[in-house]
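A quick aside before the break. I want you to see a complete sequence-to-structure record at least once, exactly as it would be stored in a machine-readable document. Don't worry about memorizing anything.
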Amino acid sequence: MLKAVAKRAAFYFIPVALLVGMVIAIVPGAPWALLIGFFTAFGMIIVALFCVSDRKLDMEIGKIDAPWLGSNTSSMQVNLFVKSEIALDIAKGAVAKAGGWDITVIGQATVVGWIGSVWSNLPRSQSYQMAIVFCEASIGEIQFLCCARPRSKAALMGLKRSLELVSKLQNALLEMAELY
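That is the input. The structure line, written in tokens, reads:
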């Protein structure tokens, strides 16, 4: 976790240090101690907020919550008649086909992937968690639950994009089931 926090801190503090250094070189004699103190305090707050609200960081440190919970979350259930032995392969393939990267298997019945940019907080292009949870519904039938939600717990918008991603996951799941 310390490595992830240090990485996020570096993404903030290196550009800010370069900017403040450049301004100090251009305008000497201003109250730079006050300015540097402000940007340092502001940066520490920003880094702390990012770390507390980041679902991917939570997964990396073992704090895993149900992918169908949280704000701006969307989910859709799909029942398919496939063998239970290939359900994991179908779920992993569907997340990849829907555009997911850094695909992780949690337990034996959850596949999680990520899509979008970490550098944006605009609902259209921000990072989202895509997940497929599956279980046996009846003999020969597997129930898949496709879920999508913003990577940040603090995201104020993103429900429309979550719905689009769930639909994309559903289509990819149906296509993968046809291949098997």
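Two observations worth writing down. The radius of gyration is 21 Å. Residues 128 and 150 are 4 Å apart (CA to CA). We'll return to this after the break.
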